[in-house]
Amino acid sequence: AGLPRLVPNLVAALRSLVHTNLDLAAKLWRALFPAAWAALPAPLQARLVGPLSALLGKPYLRPSLGCPAPATMRPTSNATGRLPASGFATLTASWGAAAFGQAGLPLHGAPHHRDSPSAPGGGSALVAPAPTPPNVVQVLLASVADLRPLPVLSPQVISALGRTHNAWHTALQLLEHHTLIAPAMERGGWVHCLGATLESLGEADRSYALRQRTCAARESHVALSLEAYGHLERAQSLYLELITQEASGRGVGLKLSGYELGLWEDRWVECGRELGQWPLLLDVARATQRPDLAMESAWKTGDWPAVKELLRSPSILAQLELGSPHHKLFEMYSAIVDEKLGDVEQHCNQCIQLSLHKWSQLPAPGTALDAHAPLLKLFHQLVEVHESGQVLAEAFQQRSLSKKQPAASQVFDLKQVLHTWRERLPNAWDSVPDWTDVLYWRLAVFKATVDAVDASKPGSSKSQSTSKTSASALGQASSVQAAGESNTGRVQDIPWTTLRLASAARNLKLEPVALRTLATLYAVPSMDVADAHSMLREQILMCHPRFVAGSETRKLQGGLSLVNNTNLEYFDAPQRAEVFRLKGSFEALLGAPKHDVTRSLASAVAVDRNLAAAWISWGEYLDGLANGQDPSAQTQAQTQAQSEAREEALVCFSMALTTPHSKPRDALAKPSEAPGGQSAGGHGSQTAAEKLVMARLIGGLKSLDAKIVERIPEAAWVPWVLFLVPALARPSEAKMASLILRRVGDKFPQAVAPHLRAFAHERSALCSGGTGDGGGGGAGEMGADAQVFGALDGGEESARHALQLLAQVRQWHPELMANLEAVLGELEQRFLPTPEERLLEVLSAALDRCLDLAWPFDSPLPADIAKALGAASAAFSASKANASASSSSSSSSKSPTKSPSKRSKAGSPHRSSGAAALHHDLAVFARPTAGGGNEGAEGGDLFSIRAAVGKLRRWCTLLDHWIGETTPKRTRLNERSPLLARFHSASGAGRSSAMEAPGQYLGLPTSRAAPRPDLHARVVSFSPWVTSEAGPRGAGVTRRVGFLCDDGALREWRIQAKPTGADKRDDVMAHLGRVVCGVLSAHPEARRRHLSLCTAKTAPLKSGGLNSSSGEGSQRGGWSLSLEEHSAAQHTLAQVFVDWTLARGGDPLDAVMESREALERRLTSSKPPTDDPKAAEAEADREQLRAYTTLCSTSVPDDILAKRALEA
Question: Which of 259, 351, 417, 711 is a Cys-bridge partner for 328, taking CB atoms 3.0 to 4.6 Å apart?
C-alpha cells in the first residue's frame, strides 16, 4: 500500500544521483530503457526507430577536437611536466584517456608518490589516467544492443558511431546480428560496413571469412583463400579472370550480387597494392574515380602535379575537413616538393594533433588486434618526413650559398641521419605498401639531396636550375636513377635502401616485386663494394626455389651459374666466404657429390672461420645426410657413415656458436639463408643452440669436445638449463653437463640456481629410499627417463654434482645467493599445501582418468588407479595424524600447516558431518588384500568404474567445500611469512647483487635474443597480501604472492604443488611451446596474425617430496612445489565452460556423464560384428564422435565464447 508513495521519493533521489555520478546514470539507463522498450507495443517501437537514429546523429554528440587546455590544467612554474590532479577529468573529457595510454596507471600495491594527493603535503600528481566514464553514444548504443527485438538502424550510422565514439565492439555486435538475419539481397550494405569495421580493428582474417560467407561463387572463395594465405599474384590473376569473364558475358553461371562483383575489383586493387604495381594502379584510379588510391599511387610514382591536383579535389578536401591524418601527410609531401619548408612544421603539428585524436577514438590496445598499427606506422612516417625536411633545408641552403659564394661550397655530411634511417625500418613481416611508404620517400630525398649537392659545385650546369629541379628529382623516386659519379656517398644511401626493399619483398615471397626492385639498380653506374656484394647475393637467392615458383632445377642452375661467374677479386674475406657458402648450398640442392659440396663449404670456412652461416650450412648438410635414409635398409658401412656425419654435424653447430659477433643476438639467432633457412628478418630455421641441444638429447652431449664447449657463449645454454640439469644423473654426460652448468652459473646464476636446488633435493630424497605415495608415479618417471637417456645413477653422485655446483655459485655470488635461497626457502616452508588440498589433487586426477577410460562403466576399476587412491588415502591419514601430534606437542610451530590458525577455529574437516563417510571410503582402498589388490565391504561394487566415479565426485565436492570454507581469500603476508614481509632490497649501486624477478629467462626460445641480466627487473619487496582463490572442480586453492620490482611492476606468481612426474612433464611441454612460438615468430603470415602458444612460466622450489615431518619426504614419488606466473588475461576453454555451467547452478560433469551413459547404451544395444574386430573398433569410434558432437551441440551454446569476450 505504501509503495506508490515511495516511488516519487525514489525517483527524486535517483535524479539527484545521476547528475553527480555518470557511471550510475549509464547503468540506470541501460537497465530502464530495455524494460521500457519491452513494455511498448510493436507499432510504437517501430515509430521510435527514426527519432532514436536522429538522436544518435546529433552534432552536439560528436567528439570535439583541439579544445584549449583550461587554466586549471596548465602546469605551474614549479611543477614542470606535471598536471594538477583536478584538471585530469577535463583533459579526458576532451581527448579521452586513451590519448595518454596506460603507462601512467597506478600499480596495485605500489607506494604512493610523495606529491600524490593522498600523500601528506602533496599538491600535484603525475598524470595517471583514471577510469573514463562512457560517453553518451556508447551508452545509447549499448542499450540499443540490449533491446529485444532489436531496432533496425542504418548500417552506415552504426559503423560511423562505432568509429567516432570508441564504441567499436558494440557496433560490431549490432552489425553481426543484422548481417546474419538480413535477407540475401539486402545483406550487401551490412556486409560492407561490417567488413570495414573489422579491417579498421585489424581483424583481417575475420574480414576474409565474412567475404567468403557472403560470396556465392566458388571461384571467389578460391581467390579469397589465395589472398589470405599470401599468394597474391595468383589471387590477382584469378580476380582479373573473373572480372573479364563477367564483362564479356561468360560469367560463373550464378546470379551474383552487386557486392560480390564489386568485391572482385576491390580485391584486385588491394593485390596490386601488395605487389607494388603503382603505375598501373594510378591509371586504374583515374579511370574508376578512386581519389585515395590515385593519391597514393601518384606520390609513389613521382607524379607530383597529380598530387597537387588531387589535394584540391572535393573528396580529399572533405577528408581533410574530417581530420584525416593520412591525408594531412600528403600536404607535407607537397610542401617539401615546392620547397615551402616553413609550412612543414605547421603541417606536422596538425598531423600529430589529428593522429592523437584518432588514437583516442580507438579501443584499448589489449582489446583489438592491430587497430593501432596504422597510426604507429604513420608516426614513423611523420618522424622521417620531419627529418627529411631538415635535411633538404640544409641542402637547399648549401645550394643557395654556392650561388653567392662559389668558393665556400662544401659537401655536408649526413652519416648520422643515414645510420639512424638504416636502424629504423619497418618490421620484417610488414607488407610491401608499409615498406614503400618509408623507403620510397627516402629514395626521393636522397635523389633531391644529390642533385642539390651537385648543383652547388662551382661550374656545374645544375647551379642555374630553379626549384623545379628538386620537384623533378623527387619525381624520380621510384625509378632510382644514377646517383652520379661525384663524391656524394655521404649524402645518399640509394643502393642500400633499394636492396633492403628487395630483400623484404624476397622474404615475403613476392618475386615480381623483388626482381623489379633489383632491376632499378642497373641504372646506378657505381656503388660501394658492400652494396655490390649484397646485390649479387639477392640475385643468387632469388634463384632459390623457396623464394620463386617454376622449374626448381632451372632456377638452381641459374643461381649456381651466377656464383661461378662472379669475380671475387674486389670482395673481402667474409664476402668471399659467403659466396662459397651459397655455392655449396646450391650444389647440395642440385644433388652434387658430397666431395664437391664439402669442398665449397670447407672453402667458405677456410676463407672466414668466423662466418657462422657457413658452419650452420655445413652442419645442416651433414645432418641431412645422417637422417636421409631409412636405418632398416642400410648396410653396416652406411650406418657407420651416418653416425660419422651426425657427429660432424654436431661439431659444425658447435663451431657456429663459437664465432665472435658484435651482437649476441647475431651469434645466437643467425639462421642460414639456404638451404635450411632465410635471413634473420624472414623465415627462420632452428638456431644453432636448438640444433646443438636437439643433438644432445639423442646422446650427442657426451661426444662434444670440452675445448669447443668452453668457447660456446654461456647465453646459448640458458634456455636449455631445464635439460642440462637432469643430465647430471647420467654418468656418460654428467662431466660435460657439469662443465656447462658451471660456466652458465658464473654468468647467469639465477637461471641455474633454482633448478640445481630442486634437483639436489630430489636426488637426495631418492637416496633416502621409498617407493612413492601415489602422487604421480615418481618411479615411473625415473623409468621413462632411463629408457630415453640411458642408465641413471643411484642419486648420490648426481646430488653431489649439484651441491658442488651450488657451492661454487654461492662462492661467486654470495649476496645474491643468500637473498635467493632465503626467499625460496621461505616460500617452500610457509606456503605448503594442506593435506586436504593434496588429497583433492589426487582424487581429481583419478576422476579424470576414470572418465577417460573406455566403456563400459561397469567394468572393474584398473588396479593402478585403485593403488594410487589407496596410497593417497594412507598418506593423507598419516599426515593428519602427524599434524595432530605435532600441534599438540608444540603450540608455536613455524609451519602454517601445524600452527593453530583460523582454520582450526572454524572446525576441522574430520569433525564435520561428512568426514566419517570420507574416512570409510578411503579406508577401503587403503586396506590391501593378500593378492595385492583391495577388498571392500560393499560386495565389490566399489571397484567398478561407475561406482568409483560416483564416490570420487562426492569426495571432490566435499573436499572443495571444506577447503573453500576454511581458506580465507586474503591473508596478510606478515602472518604467513614475517621474513618475506620484512624483505627489502635496495636498488642503485647494489642492484647487481639483488634478486631478479622469476621467469625472465624463459622467453628466450621465442625472442631468440641473448639474456641481459643488467636489464632484468629486480625484486624490491613483496606485496603485503597473499591472495587465495578457488579454482575449477578439483583444482583446490591456489595462493598468489606478489613480487614488487624496481621497474614499478607487480608480478603475481601462484604457488603450485604437483606430483613430481607431472611437474616435469608440464615444464617440458611449456618449453616445447616456447620453441614452437619461436618457429611461428619467424614466419611473416604467423607474425602478422600474432599466432603464439600461451605457455606458463614456472620456477622450481622443491622437487621429490614435501612435508618431510609428515612422513612423505622419504618417499620417492612425493610432491613438487613451484612458482607459476599468474595472468588474469588467460582463460582456458575448460574454464570458460565450467564458469558458464556454475553460473547457471549446474555441475560441469553432469553433461559428460549423461553423454557417457548414452554412448554406453548405444554401444551395448548395437550388435558388433564378432568376426571383424577392426570393424567393431571403427563403429565404436564413430559412435564416440557422434556422442561428442551431440554433447557439444546440446550442452555448449554457440555464442559462449563471444559472450565471454564481450564480458572481458
Answer: 351
AA identity, residue 383: V
3-class DSSP state of 1043: strand
Q: How far apart are CA 460 and CA 451, in angstroms?
A: 11
pLDDT band at 806 (very low <50, low <70, confident <90, very high): very high
Q: What's the CA gap between 331 and 348, in Å, rounded?
A: 9
Model confidence over 151-194: pLDDT tens digits? Answer: 999 999 999 999 999 999 999 999 999 998 988 878 889 999 99
Asked if 399 contacts 452 with a C-beta cutoff of 8 angstroms, the reply is yes
325-337 and 373-404 helices, crossing angle to 10°? 10
In whole angstroms, give the CA distance from residue 229 to residue 141.
Answer: 35
Q: What is the pLDDT of residues 667-711, one digit of tens each?
A: 333 333 333 333 333 333 344 444 454 444 435 666 677 888 888
pTM exceeding the 0.90 threshold for the entire prediction: no
Q: Taking the alpha carbons of 205, 211, 214, 220 in that order, is the dihedral positive or negative?
A: negative
| DSSP per-residue letters across 590-622 | TT--HHHHHHHHHHHHHH-TT-HHHHHHHHHHH
d(CA 790, CA 783): 10
1011's CB contacts (< 8 A; 6+ apart) are 715, 718, 748, 751, 1000, 1001, 1004
C-alpha grid cell for residue 575? 664476402
Cell 621409498 belongs to residue: 770
C-alpha–C-alpha distance, residues 826 and 831, integer Å = 8
d(CA 1062, CA 1069): 11
Cell of 1107: 612435508
**Is 538 exposed, middle or buried (CB count within 10 Å of its CB: 0-12, 13-18, 19+)?**
buried
DSSP 928: B
Whether the per-residue pLDDT at 78 is higher than 80: the answer is no
Burial track 484-493 (b if 16+ CB lie within 10 A, e otherwise): beeebbebbb
pLDDT at position 126: 34
Helix (H) or strand (E) holding 1028: strand 1025-1030
Given a cut of 70, whether residue 423 has pLDDT beyond it is yes
The C-alpha atoms of residue 91 and residue 95 are separated, in whole angstroms, by 6
Summarised one tens digit per residue, pLDDT across range 333-362 is 999 988 888 888 899 999 999 999 999 889
1076 pLDDT higher than 70: yes
For 954, residues 6+ apart whose C-beta sits below 8 A from its C-beta are: none
What are the pLDDT digits (tens) for 1183-1194?
Answer: 888 888 888 888
d(CA 783, CA 806): 27
Are 392 and 341 a contacting pair, CB within 8 Å? yes
Q: List, for residues 1114-1129, the tens digit of each pLDDT value.
A: 334 467 889 999 877 7
